[in-house]
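Tokens for chain A. Residues wanted.
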């Protein structure tokens, strides 16, 4: 199983509530679903970080940095066709639309993305 993980930080100065409005917006949900369908993902997930005492305690106990504000993930059984699909005109248009939407509430320069492989 191949997984794409995208970890996001909100724009500087943006409140958690404002970030959540964009993140939970129907338009963003639809864009995420369209990317999943276009890329033939077998699963996708869109998660918000919980601002809870347990998270604060982990940061303190482990001496780690602040968590990302949101995480977006897509899974594929086989990603061999992914780059072909990524280059399709409809994919290029969709990713541009996604990027324009995300620029409203995400600090892309402090966010990250990567692929992982299930080692089982």
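Reply:
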């Amino acid at each position: 199983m191949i997984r794409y993980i995208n970890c996001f930080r909100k724009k500087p100065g943006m409140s958690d509530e404002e970030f959540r409005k964009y993140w939970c917006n129907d338009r963003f949900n639809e864009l995420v679903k369209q990317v999943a369908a276009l890329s033939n993902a077998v699963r996708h997930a869109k998660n918000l970080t919980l601002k809870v005492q347990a998270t604060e305690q982990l940061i303190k106990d482990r001496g780690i940095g602040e968590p990302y504000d949101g995480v977006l993930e897509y899974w594929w059984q086989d990603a061999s066709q992914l780059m072909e699909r990524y280059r399709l005109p409809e994919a290029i248009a969709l990713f541009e639309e996604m990027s324009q939407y995300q620029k409203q509430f995400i600090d892309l320069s402090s966010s990250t993305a990567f692929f992982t492989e299930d080692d089982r």
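Residues 50 and 69 are 8 Å apart (CA to CA). The chain has five helices and four strands.
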